[in-house]
Amino acid sequence: MGKLDDTIAIVTGAGQGIGRGIAEKLAAEGATVVVTDINETTAKETAAAISTGAIGGTGIRTDVTDRDSVAAMVEQVHQQFGRIDVLVNNAGWDVVGPFVDSDPADWDRVIAINLYGVLHTCKAVLPIMAAQGHGSVVNLASDAGRVGSSGEAVYSAAKGGVIAFTKTIAREMARHQVNANVVCPGPTDTPLFASIGGDNPKLRDALTKAIPFRRLAQPVDLAKRRRLPRLQRGLLHHRPDRQRQRRPHDELKQGTPRHGHDAHRRAYRSLHRPLAEQADHRLPRRGRRRDPGQAGVDRRTRRHHVGRAQALVR
User: Fold this and answer.
1) What is the DSSP string of 146-188?
2) Whole-angstrom Cα distance, residue 252 to residue 110?
3) Partner of 30 at 20 to 30 A CA spacing, among 176, 259, 283, 314?
């Protein structure tokens, strides 16, 4: 019995590289994996390789830049299995070079695959997950989307968009018990990496020296560390046959007064926080703008304020 038994997962760009590693890991945990790739041959090869006994893999040619192709794939999977539990958006492509020398045609392709590909699959799959009341989405971005990468300006922009998009759908879909996570790998030894210059010994050596482990990542590393434990917990807690337990903060959302230490603390803060600090209440504590006059409040005055706050919330 695997941790992902009876789970239907779609992995894009799974014909090779990181996508294949993820598909193999999901299948090893018991999931039924739908392998999609622009290259139908490699998709079917991966599907055949991960098929063991009753656990089968399905290979489907899918062009993530084409909404009709994505919609047809999702419809086929939904009709065949009745649901979609997991979506892993892995498909990607890049071309390396200085931005000022880049070809606008390459911009379109990079953005179409890396960003629009994620939008297309999520647009087709998320309504299904919302209707069934559970699901998990894992989008693969890149460290380039977080900090930038010389020679990959447009790729970095697209992956930065994936990061922001994932955070947004995580907020929007939480009410439907659908979670979304984004993974940002660094340099990984894949066929794509080799095609954009990764087979250059000088480049490989420079990247290796910049990595604390002194080696490039392997697809299996990403498969093992791509938040699979969180994915498993999410599926376990969002099964439609399991009722969500009511928690104390649910009552607060419905308007029931909340008492106790937290209420006293919030009342105290609302009474005595300077206006400048109230505007910055979401900033980290060290980054808040504080009124210098407030720093001299002695303990006797503070106890008096706490007493007032307690009286207000009773």
Assistant:
1) HH--TT-HHHHHHHHHHHHHHHHHHHHHGGGTEEEEEE----B
2) 46
3) 176
pTM: 0.68
On the 0-12 / 13-18 / 19+ scale of CB atoms within 10 A, 67 is middle
Residues 167, 173 contacting (CB under 8 angstroms): no
Phi and psi dihedrals of 63, rounded to 5? -100, 105
Q: Would residue 268 show up in a list of annotated catalytic residues for this protein?
A: no
Regarding beta strands 8-11 and 86-89, do their DSSP bridges make them parallel or antiparallel, or are they unpaired?
parallel
* Catalytic residue of the set 116, 155, 165, 193: 155
- Say which residues have a Cβ less than 8 Å from residue 204's Cβ, sequence separation at least 6: 198, 216
| DSSP bridge partners of 57 | 33
DSSP class of 294: G
Helix ranges restricted to H, 82-240: 104-111, 117-132, 144-147, 153-173, 191-193, 201-210, 219-225, 228-237
pLDDT (tens digit, 9 = 90+) per residue, 10-64? 999 999 888 898 999 899 888 999 999 999 999 999 999 998 655 668 999 999 9
Confidence of residue 144 (pLDDT cuts 50, 70, 90): confident
Q: For residues 5 and 26, is the Cβ–Cβ distance under 8 A?
A: no
Structure tokens at 126: 């998320």
CA–CA distance, 247 with 245 (Å, rounded to integer): 6
Whole-number Å distance between alpha carbons of 235 and 230: 9
Nearest to residue 117, comparing CAs of 46, 192, 38, 26? 38
